[in-house]
Write a structure and sequence with these properties.
The protein is an all-alpha fold and 103 residues long. It is built from four helices and no strands. The chain is rod-shaped and about 115 Å long.
Length: 103
């Protein structure tokens, strides 16, 4: 076999290989968008912290209401200032309550 024959065979291998690779690529499913796991975890951490803060505020509010109920059942009369203080809930509690009742 001559050098020219060897080169001709190698050129045909390269063309065949490129055609095979093109066929494989065409048969693959389209690329999917890469998921940014760090962003997802960061967002989840933010919302977890936010929810925990709201839950703490809500728990504090209910503790105050429990004390007020016990005092009321014990016969204590509340002044207008006391009642206004009970109404001044943390803003996130009001938003949560309003959102729940708007559904």
């Amino acid at each position: 076999m001559s050098l020219q024959d060897s080169l001709a065979v190698m050129v045909s291998y390269t063309a065949t290989l490129q055609e095979t690779l093109r066929s494989i690529r065409d048969a693959l499913p389209p690329d999917k968008q890469v998921v940014d796991v760090q962003k997802i975890l960061s967002t989840q951490e933010h919302w977890t912290t936010e929810m925990a803060n709201q839950l703490e505020g809500l728990a504090e509010h209910f503790e105050k209401m429990e004390v007020a109920l016990r005092e009321s059942e014990a016969g204590e009369k509340f002044s207008e200032g006391d009642i206004q203080g009970m109404r001044s809930r943390p803003p996130h509690v009001c938003v949560m309550i309003e959102a729940r009742f708007k559904r």
